[in-house]
Design goal:
Layout: H1 16-33, H2 42-64, H3 68-92, H4 98-111, H5 122-136, H6 139-147, H7 151-207, H8 211-246
Helix pairs in contact: 1-2, 1-7, 1-8, 2-7, 3-4, 3-7, 4-6, 5-7, 7-8
């Protein structure tokens, strides 16, 4: 009978999401069979679970973090300026003065594609506001903005939009960096525990005098090896797609 061995997992190369998924699945597979049946002490399995939970939390924080309160405040300011700007242009179309009326009518054509800009999702609004600024800065439109006395409004809107983008990008990058730093210290601990657990599983397979128990543990090793092969294949495929996308 061929001796069972664990395949090399290579999880150090995995992305953070794949890494935690790998550990969650292998933890569940061994746990379902029974940690006690493969001589894994409760303290070790609990520590493994703790590391997995911590990795999951760090992953979620790295993806989700933004300073919501500050962004909401700036977004409200941006909405107010946009509403004022569009309203002033619309009102100008009814001006009794021909120059202002003409400027308003021409600018209405420019802002029409940006209708409901304030109701867009925030990131989309940021991008569309940048487009609006580019349109309004064109020489002929800039002159019309000046005629309507809206230079300061446009300038404030541009600054507000830029500040929103900078805060969102800056805080996300900063927090993500902190999360990555945390993950870089937790991941090796999780991997070390995995190796300690699988060493005990393998030792139990070798040393058990019970033929049925040996067969059961061998089947467990086979299932984990199959999962390892699937994860390696998925990792290689994702890397190939990433390389192709960079070409």
């Amino acid at each position: 009978m061929k001796r069972k061995r664990f395949a090399v997992a290579g999880m150090t190369r995995f992305t953070n999401a794949r890494h935690v998924h790998f550990h969650m699945q292998t933890y569940e597979m061994i746990g379902q069979y029974g940690f006690d049946k493969v001589n894994v002490p409760l303290t070790l399995s609990d520590e493994w679970k703790r590391c997995i939970v911590l990795e999951t939390e760090l992953n979620n924080q790295a993806r989700a973090h933004v300073d919501t309160a500050r962004l909401i405040q700036i977004d409200a300011e941006r909405d107010s300026l946009t509403t004022f700007l569009f309203g002033a242009i619309r009102n100008a179309t009814s001006s009794p003065f021909d120059t202002q009326k003409a400027a308003g009518e021409e600018l209405m054509i420019i802002i029409r594609p940006y209708k409901n800009l304030q109701r867009q999702a925030r990131d989309r609004q940021t991008a569309q506001t940048e487009g609006l600024m580019l349109d309004l800065k064109k020489p002929e439109n800039a002159a019309r903005i000046t005629i309507l006395g809206l230079d300061n409004t446009v300038e404030l809107l541009e600054k507000s939009n830029r500040r929103y983008q900078e805060i969102r990008s800056g805080l996300t990058s900063q927090k993500a960096a902190e999360m990555v730093e945390g993950l870089s210290s937790v991941r090796p601990q999780t991997d070390e525990i995995y190796h300690a657990v699988t060493d005990r599983v393998f030792a139990s397979y070798l040393l058990t005098p019970d033929a049925q128990r040996k067969e059961e543990i061998g089947a467990l090793i086979d299932r984990i090896n199959l999962f390892i092969a699937e994860q390696k294949a998925a990792y290689k495929q994702s890397q190939a797609q990433k390389t192709k996308g960079d070409e």
